[in-house]
Structures are given as C-alpha cells and as structure tokens.
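Form 7-S
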Amino acid sequence: MLHVTLPGTGGTMPMKNRWLCTGLMQYEGVSLLIDCGEGTQIAIKEGGGKLHSIALLLITHLHADHISGLPGLLLSMGNEGRTNPLTIIGPIGITQVVTALRVIAPELPFDIYITEWPDPEQTVSTAGFTVTGFALRHTLPCLGYTVEIPRVGKFDVEKATQKSVPLAVWSLLQKQKSAEYQGMIYQQSDVLGSPRKGLKVTY
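Output:
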C-alpha cells in the first residue's frame, strides 16, 4: 500500500505544531522524501516515519524553507548507522547547495548521489519509484514532480494451475520474483496477470 503524508506544510519559518514543507511517500518499506525544510526529521518521526527507509530525496527549489533541514537529516541518518546510499535530485544549483550544507556533516557512513535537472522534463526510475519532473513558476528555478509506482498484475489462479505451479509457492510469488520448491524454480510471471495501472502522486 502507498502511504502519503505531509509532515510539514508551513512556509518561510517553522512554527509551533507546523513544520516547514516536506512530503513523504512510503511504499513496501521504501520511502521518498520531497523537500526538507527545517525540522523535517522531527516531523517525520512524529508521524511514525523512519529515516533509514528514505532512498530518494527530491528538492523542488533552493529556498531555505525547502532545504535547510538537510544537514540535520543527514547527520541523524548517519548516527542511526545508515549505510545504504541516498539519491538527491533537484534543480540547477542543488549540487552547490548540498555541498555547502555538508560542511557541518562532512563524514557520513553512506554515499550521496546528487543529480541536477537543468531540463525539468526528465524521467528517472530508482528505488522502485518512477519520477518525472516538470517546471513550475517561482522566483527561483523550481520543479514539480510526478511520482509513479508500477504495480504487478493480480494473482491468476487459472494461469498458476495451467503452469503447474505448486500451491505451496503461490503466496511467495505474489511478493517476490521467483521461488524454489522441491528443486524447481518458479517465476512470478507464472502466476500473475498483466501489470496493473500504477499509482501516481504529483507534488
């Protein structure tokens, strides 16, 4: 199930009970974060989110209320023992800004990959998400993002039976690409129908 929350909805400066802009999407244990205003890590934890699950960070633009929470977020991820890499995507200038903010977080136990999108109309697939950018009108170069999550087909009993797939692996093949049973390898495609229309969220 896709879980979408807005841990922060404020602008310019954080206020009591209202953190700065950030959106969080969680799907099958992996999270995508959009923007990272001051207090983002606290807002995420208050909402029950987990910092270690964030695989992708999308920045819409480089105003402070959308990115000033990044150093603290990175430091907390490191202090929690994160080792998985983090990908950051944003408009022109994101590399320079992240590099500057990392002066106070120079040594982290995980890699950070930064991608600038000079042309907003790009698409990338990573961490199970397909992200397409588009230009927004603002005082700085600004990106909006459409995030899509592809979904596999529904379980097809008739197909599974025709393929002689043992009942013992039906449940497994709905969750993973393949399964072994009694020396035989069975594929997810043996039991599922055509892919379903993916989930889509635009921010």
